Amino acid sequence: MMQELRERVLAVSKRVLGHSVLGPAWDFHCHLLPGVDDGLRSLQEARAAIEGMQALGYRGAVLTPHIYPGVYDNLPGQLQEAVHDLQQRVGDDFTLRLAAEYFVDESLFEAIERDDLLHLPVLGHKLVLVEYPMLQPSSCADDVMLTLKQAGYQPVLAHVERYRYLRWDRDSQLARLQQLDVWLQCDIGSLVGQYGRGPQQLARWLMERDLVALWGTDLHRVEQLQRYVAPGLAVLQRNRFRINPMLIDSVAG
């Protein structure tokens, strides 16, 4: 089954893209680390996903497992060991780096205070990926962002296009994020309707205005590569966007 999926991803990349993504690319935001959250479930799936990503032109990925106390109680040390083990198993042709996707609630203040946030150093910034609640805004969101900045981190808001309350009040919400100096991350699959029409419209609106700092697969299942990521990459390619160029030199070394 996994071999069949890999072959389908390669076929889609050739048909939809004409070739792989423009130049070597890095993913920012994925759940490739097996068995730690709601992402990939086994080493076999992780291997298949990585081979599929390579077929699309990816040379590495920033792994962002969920850290959400009481739901995904992942500890930085355990995740670092898991990434090291996965890298050894998949080999050096696809480079793995570790960050995390932190849920924004009161517990995040404690993690900032401990100064043990999993982050990605890029061009002098310490990038921290954060996720808002999906259904309603967090009352502490602004304070969390300000505290991250004061602690020397650069907050990156995950899949900004998917928060319904943000879409309803788009201009003022985006203005507030800009005021807080929060970078925006969008899911590539949103460009082709993976999460519905609303997220698709906002993702394309943000893309057209070049407001997205980082694009991610947000990969949870291998099948996403064929159904959403490859067609989404084609949209970016047609609009002459490279995939996360800031990561190429900063992270690959």
TrEMBL record:
It catalyses: O-phospho-L-tyrosyl-[protein] + H2O = L-tyrosyl-[protein] + phosphate. Its EC number is 3.1.3.48. One of its GO terms (molecular function) is protein tyrosine phosphatase activity. Signal peptide: none annotated. It holds the Pfam family CpsB_CapC. Keywords: Hydrolase. The keyword Protease does not apply. The keyword Ribonucleoprotein does not apply. It comes from the Bacteria. InterPro entries: Caps_polysacc_synth_CpsB/CapC, Pol/histidinol_Pase-like. SUPFAM superfamilies: PHP domain-like (SSF89550). Gene3D superfamilies: Metal-dependent hydrolases. Transmembrane segments: none annotated. It is an enzyme of class 3 (hydrolase). PANTHER family: TYROSINE-PROTEIN PHOSPHATASE YWQE. Belongs to the metallo-dependent hydrolases superfamily. CpsB/CapC family. This is protein-tyrosine-phosphatase.
